[in-house]
Design a protein that fits this description.
InterPro entries: G_IRG_dom, Immunity-related_GTPase-like, IRG, P-loop_NTPase. The chain contains 16 helices and 6 strands. It is α/β, with parallel strands linked by helices. Strands 2-3-1-4-5-6 form a 6-stranded mixed beta sheet, sandwiched between helices. The structure holds guanosine-5'-diphosphate. Guanosine-5'-diphosphate (GDP) binds next to helix 3 and helix 6.
Length: 401
C-alpha cells in the first residue's frame, strides 16, 4: 500500500482485519480501528537505568522525562545512600513509558549473581548502564548477563559537561573534539579489554541532552527497537533536536489516515447534523495528543522554562498556533480552521481517498474523512512548527556545540 511508511504501526495483517470487519459492518470496522489506535497509544516501554550510586542515574531519568530534580515525581538526586529498591518513573505525558532506577550491582541487597533476577529483568525492553568515569567489572559482568538473557544494553558515560570544562581549565591547547574522542576511546578500550565485543558508548550530559551523544543513543534505539515500541519511545523523547521534532511529526502523521478513517465512519451513523460535531471532538482529542507529545502543554512548558532558564512567557511568545500552553477546545479549533479554509489546497486528498476505498468505506462517507485528514495535517504542522520554535528559544542561551 503506497501510504505505508516506517512510522505506520498498524501492520498489513491488521489492515486486512479492518477490511474484513468493515465488510461485515462499518461499526465493526471502526471498533477495530479504535482498538488499534488505543493499543498504540498505550504501548508499554520499560527502560532500565543501572549503574553505581552517584553515576547520575536519577538525573538522567529526570532529564529524559523533562522533569527538574525539585519537581514532584522527580527521581531523588544527589542522595548519598544507595538505592535499595527498584523504582519506576513514568513519563509525565506518556505514562506507559517508564524509566526504572535500578540499584547498583553488587550492593548488599543486590549481589551481582542474583542481580537480574532480583530486579525482574523480564519486564525491561532494554538496559542503559551508566558510569561517571570508567566502566567497572560489575558493569561488564552485568552487560554479559543481560546479553545472555536475550536483552539489549547500552553504555552511557555521564557528566561529560564536567569533563569538558575541567579539561578546558587544565589544558592550554584544549581541543573539545579530541577530548571527547579520547574519553570515548578510553571507555571502549576498557570495555573491550574486559570482554565486551564492539561496545557502544554514548557520552551524555543530563544537564544538556541536546549536546554530545544523546542523539546517537536516540538513533540507535530507534533502529533497534521493534516497530511498535519505536513510536512510544519517540513520543516520549524530549524535543532536543530538529530531527527528533521532525520524526515525531512523521510518526503522528502516519496515524492521521486512521483517525480520518474513523471520523468518516462516524458520519455513517445516521444522526442528522451530528457528523461535524463528532469530528470536532475527535480533532480536539488528537490535537491534545500532539500538544502533549511535543511538550507544549502548560506543565511541560513550565518545566522547560525552569530547566532552560528561559522565562515561561518568552517560550509562549514564540508560538504562533495558539495551541500551546492552553486547553484545546472545539472553539479554538474552529477558529484555527477558518485559516485552513482560506488556504484551500487539498492536501494529499486523493491519496487518502484511495486508502479509504481500499479499506471499504462507502463512497458517500469519504468526504468527511478527507476533511478530517486535511484538518489534522494542518494542525499537526502548526504544533510541530511551534515545537521547533520553542526548542530553539530554549537552547538559544546554551547552544554551543
Ligand atoms: P545516582 O545516584 O546514580 O542516581 O546519581 P544522581 O543522579 O543522584 O547524581 C549524582 C550527582 O551527580 C548529583 O549531584 C548530580 O547533580 C550530578 N550529575 C548527574 N548527572 C550529571 C551530569 O550530566 N553532569 C554533571 N555535571 N553532573 C551530573
Amino acid at each position: 500500500m503506497d501510504m505505508e511508511d516506517q512510522w505506520d504501526v498498524i501492520t498489513s495483517d491488521e489492515v486486512t482485519e479492518i477490511q474484513e470487519e468493515m465488510e461485515k459492518s462499518p461499526d465493526k470496522g471502526l471498533a477495530k480501528i479504535k482498538e488499534y489506535l488505543e493499543k498504540q497509544k498505550n504501548t508499554p516501554l520499560n527502560i532500565a537505568i543501572t549503574g553505581e550510586s552517584g553515576s547520575g542515574k536519577s538525573t538522567f531519568i529526570n532529564a529524559f522525562r523533562g522533569i527538574n530534580d525539585s519537581d514532584e515525581g522527580a527521581a531523588p538526586t544527589g542522595v548519598v545512600e544507595t538505592t535499595a529498591v527498584v523504582e519506576s518513573y513514568p513519563h509525565p505525558n506518556h505514562p506507559s513509558v517508564r524509566l526504572w532506577d535500578l540499584p547498583g550491582v553488587g550492593t548488599p541487597n543486590f549481589p551481582a549473581d542474583e542481580y537480574l533476577e532480583k530486579v525482574g529483568f523480564e519486564r525491561f525492553d532494554f538496559f542503559i548502564i551508566i558510569a561517571a568515569c570508567r566502566f567497572k567489572e560489575n558493569d561488564v559482568k552485568l552487560a554479559l548477563d543481560i546479553k545472555r538473557m536475550g536483552k539489549k544494553f547500552y553504555f552511557l558515560r555521564s557528566k561529560i559537561d564536567s569533563d569538558i570544562s575541567n579539561e578546558e581549565k587544565r589544558k592550554r591547547n584544549f581541543n573539545r573534539q579530541k577530548t571527547l574522542d579520547d574519553i570515548r576511546e578510553n571507555c571502549i578500550k576498557g570495555l573491550r579489554d574486559q570482554g565486551i565485543e564492539a561496545p557502544q558508548v554514548f557520552l551524555v550530559s543530563s544537564f544538556e541532552l541536546h549536546l554530545f551523544d544523546f542523539h546517537l543513543l536516540e538513533e540507535t534505539l530507534e533502529r533497534e527497537l521493534p516497530a511498535h515500541k519505536r513510536n512510544a519511545f519517540l513520543y516520549a523523547l524530549p524535543n532536543i533536536s530538529k530531527e527528533i521534532i521532525k520524526k515525531k511529526k512523521e510518526a503522528y502523521q502516519a496515524q492521521i489516515k486512521y483517525h480520518a478513517l474513523f471520523s468518516s465512519g462516524v458520519a455513517a451513523v445516521p444522526v442528522p447534523g451530528l457528523s461535524s460535531a463528532v469530528d470536532l471532538v475527535l480533532v480536539v482529542g488528537v490535537v491534545t495528543q500532539y500538544v502533549n507529545g511535543f511538550g507544549l502543554d502548560k506543565a511541560s512548558l513550565r518545566r522547560l522554562s525552569d530547566s532552560s532558564d528561559v522565562p515561561y512567557s518568552e517560550l509562549v511568545s514564540v508560538m504562533t498556533s495558539k495551541l500551546g500552553g492552553t486547553t484545546i477546545t472545539p472553539e479554538l479549533i474552529k477558529k484555527l480552521l477558518s485559516q485552513l479554509a482560506l488556504e484551500g489546497a487539498l492536501i494529499a486528498a486523493e491519496e487518502v481517498s484511495r486508502f479509504f476505498l481500499f479499506i471499504g468505506i462507502p463512497v458517500s462517507m469519504i468526504l468527511s474523512g478527507v476533511s478530517t485528514y486535511r484538518i489534522l495535517n494542518f494542525l499537526l504542522d502548526l504544533v510541530a512548527e511551534d515545537a521547533q520554535r520553542v526548542f530553539e528559544k530554549a537552547v538559544e542561551k546554551n547552544s554551543e556545540v
